[in-house]
Specification:
Layout: E1 3-6, H1 9-26, E2 32-37, H2 42-52, E3 59-63, E4 71-77, H3 81-89, E5 95-100, E6 110-113, H4 121-135, H5 148-159, E7 173-174, E8 185-196, E9 202-212, E10 217-218, H6 220-231, E11 234-235, H7 237-252, E12 256-265, H8 266-269, E13 280-287, H9 288-291, H10 293-301
Parallel strand pairs: 1-6, 2-3, 2-4, 4-5, 8-11
Antiparallel strand pairs: 7-10, 8-9, 9-12, 12-13
Helix pairs in contact: 1-2, 4-5, 6-7
Length: 305
């Protein structure tokens, strides 16, 4: 589950001082430097940099053209796309940012929110969907499409809801009733829906989840909920199967866990080779299911080839 860092202006002042120090090292002896602020995030970042360098050298003045600036400033280096863009058009102009996720372990897997940003996820998605409709040649103002961006935004909030759920919270354990039971527990044919991380296309099917308890059991519905936690993320089937099995092993500590998933992938059926109706089967075995051939055969034999 991704962490969210809400930065405060005091934090940004410290980061801006770090940029100022780097600039003095990059441009020793300069009394004045010119800065191009990357549109949107770079603009407030440049204001903070000017505040922390006020009355000091070098002084900072702004330029509207990156080719006329001594350096380029943004609020964050995230995926690196913006950095690569300006490296291509201004290869000799250094690029700075208040936050560099690629070099700061604290922010590496986090969602960073600046004080000038509002966390309007739905609003951001609707803008993206509107642009997508335009790019494929549609008219977003056409009657049938007027509410499509907001519908898509709401749908993706559900389809990606697994990122906000800790798997341990859905695995409520019971010792009463499980302390003497040491045979296999399997929930078969659990339907699921997920999205391929390569094309954002749906894949769907059924899962069979089993475990052999070691003094503790979980409510049967919790196995289905655990599957949903990981299915409601961008996935590949192999990882989805592994995550469910490993979550059971990590949080329930059973003698063994086994997961088998059978799914159809629209990224393969509706594009590319277009093989409609084909299914992909993945199996992950942990604990005694891996080491005991009888346990493995019993589990896999429950739902056929």
């Amino acid at each position: 589950m991704s962490k969210v860092h809400h930065l405060k202006f005091n934090d940004l002042t410290l980061y801006a001082e770090g940029v100022a120090k780097a600039l003095r090292q990059q441009f020793p002896g300069r009394t004045q430097l010119t800065c191009f602020a990357v549109p949107r995030g770079g603009v407030p970042a440049s204001y903070i940099l000017k505040i922390v360098t006020a009355g000091q050298e070098p002084s900072i003045t702004m330029r509207s053209n990156p080719h006329q600036a001594d350096f380029i400033l943004d609020d964050i280096i995230d995926s690196g796309d913006t950095l690569r863009h300006y490296d291509n058009i201004c290869p000799t102009t250094p690029f700075y940012a208040l936050v560099n996720k690629q070099r700061t372990e604290e922010f590496a897997d986090s969602w960073v929110i600046f004080p000038w940003e509002h966390q309007d996820v739905e609003g951001d998605i609707t803008v993206t969907v509107t642009r997508l409709l335009q790019q494929i040649g549609e008219n977003p103002k056409r009657g049938g499409l007027l509410e499509t961006p907001s519908r898509v935004a709401k749908a993706w909030q559900h389809w990606s809801s697994g990122y906000n759920v800790d798997p341990s919270t859905v695995l409520k354990e019971f010792e009463d009733g499980g302390e003497t039971y040491d045979e296999m527990i399997v929930v078969k044919d659990i339907p699921f829906y997920s999205h391929c991380e390569h094309h954002l296309a749906p894949f769907f099917g059924t899962a069979n989840i089993g475990y052999i308890p070691n003094g503790k059991i979980v409510g049967l519905s919790k196995l289905s909920r655990l599957l949903d936690v990981f299915a409601n993320r961008l996935q590949v089937q192999e990882r989805l199967t592994t995550q469910v099995a490993d979550a059971l092993m990590d949080h329930l500590k059973p003698r063994g866990a086994a997961v088998s998933i059978r799914a159809r992938h629209l990224c393969m059926e509706s594009r590319g080779i277009k093989r409609q109706g084909s299914e992909t089967v993945t199996n992950v075995l942990r604990g005694v299911f891996r080491t005991d051939t009888a346990a493995r055969a019993e589990f896999l034999g429950l739902f056929g080839p």
